[in-house]
Amino acid sequence: MKFIKTTDIGYVSKKLAEIISDKLRGKQRVLWLLSGGSAIEVAVAAAKLLAKTDCSGLSIGLIDERYGPPGHPDSNWSQLLDAGFRLPDALMMPVLDGSGIEESTRAYNDYISSMFHKDIIKIGLLGIGADGHTAGLLPGSQAIDSLRLVDCYTGPDYQRITLTGLGIKSLDKAVVYAAGHAKKQAIDNLGKEIPSDAQPAQLLKLIGNTDVYNDIKGGSV
Predict the structure, then answer these.
(1) Does some domain include residue 187?
(2) Angle ∠(15,16,22) on CA atoms, nearest 5
(3) pLDDT tens, position by position, 72-96
(4) Domain containing residue 13
(5) Could you tell me if residue 135 is inside a domain?
(6) Whole-prediction pTM value?
(7) 62 vs 47, 78, 189, 190, CA distance in Å?
């Protein structure tokens, strides 16, 4: 895990776009999984930079989604599109399809499982919450230790469909953006050995290649 000290979203998005475009230009297929919240601005800026690249080998999905009818205002997918996320050449795969939460979860788990078993580079854009959560994995969530790549549960705020701990660990590369004083303790805790049940962001340390862009620690750019 590498810490880079910056709050420059332009810099973060440029680095992320370079990672993806380098893979695509090398004729590698890429699965790019997106998060909501503060990561949306990074995703939109990176997509604008990728617009000049042939993205026919790029598939795009979500790290996690808030369950509800397709297009509901709290949906991460809807918020990404409303913020201007566009990549017409890429294959876009939303989570919500109008079916029940178990059916939607099963369908998305099948999709992610099929993609993870292909010769494809799996890149995740994630954030870290002040409570130490990442993806849709809140502290104490049963989805952390699920045996599936994608699972669902009812949290205190939303019903969530999310990559599980197993799904997070299966990524090839993670770009994490977590800025703000409220997240200082969560960032500091990544330097400690804490059970992932208490701080799900600990799972990010199990990915082979993780860059954490933040304003707390690391070399400045």
Answers:
(1) no
(2) 85
(3) 999 999 999 999 999 999 999 999 9
(4) 2-159+173-180+208-220
(5) yes
(6) 0.96
(7) 14, 11, 26, 24
